[in-house]
TrEMBL record:
Residues in the signal sequence: 1-23
Region span, Disordered: 21-41
Keyword Signal: yes
Signal among keywords: yes
Swiss-Prot/TrEMBL keywords: Signal
Record organism: Geodermatophilus saharensis
PROSITE patterns per UniProt: PROKAR_LIPOPROTEIN
Protein name: Lipoprotein
Length: 189
């Protein structure tokens, strides 16, 4: 009985304290913007301004490396259609095959020629082999038939036939300064 009476007295005291004139009124303003959680630092733009490397391809893990490989294949398709090689040079500065492909795209553009076909589509991708700041993949790729034509559409080079599952490989190096993967080796057999 005494415990119950004490609890009722304490509860009454607390409740009356809430309604007293001396109590501070609740705030009607929101916290200032400076008290918000810090925002994530923006990633520097990498790749063409209108086709940048996606954020999911800019993580230093297996998922990021695979997303970069998929972006690279899309970039090859995009640049072949333009044709222009600089983005390939930028993302593969130490990759001999990347430099060769970039040069071919630039020479094609300078000659007023273009590629018809040649689109690449990944069939399968192995799990990347990760080691410190590198990643390596094997993959299969479908490559549509491709030919080189001049401004009138006349065939300059009959090119290659369809390859339904050509073997390929890519080696990547993590660039801490750009926070992205860079291609160090690439090939489709």
């Amino acid at each position: 009985m005494r415990l119950t009476a004490a609890a009722v007295a304490l509860g009454t005291t607390l409740l009356t304290g809430c309604g007293s004139a001396d109590a501070e009124a609740p705030s009607t303003s929101l916290p200032s913007a400076t008290s918000a959680a810090p925002t994530t630092e923006a990633l520097p733009v990498v790749g063409p301004a209108d086709f940048p490397v996606l954020p999911e391809a800019r993580t230093q893990d297996a998922a990021g490396a695979e997303a970069f490989l998929r972006y690279w294949i899309d970039l090859l398709n995009r640049q072949r259609a333009i044709p222009a090689g600089q983005p390939l040079r930028d993302l593969g500065p130490d990759c001999g095959e990347c430099q060769r492909i970039a040069g071919a795209y630039d020479e094609t553009a300078a000659a007023g020629e273009r590629y018809e076909g040649g689109e690449l589509e990944l069939n399968d991708v192995t799990t990347p082999r990760l080691a410190e700041d590198t990643a390596a993949f094997g993959f299969g790729v479908r490559q549509e038939a491709v030919r080189l034509v001049d401004a009138t559409g006349a065939v300059v080079d009959p090119g290659q036939e369809l390859k339904t599952n050509a073997a390929g490989g890519i080696d990547l190096l993590w660039s801490a300064s750009d926070r992205t993967w860079l291609v160090t080796s690439f090939g489709i057999g």
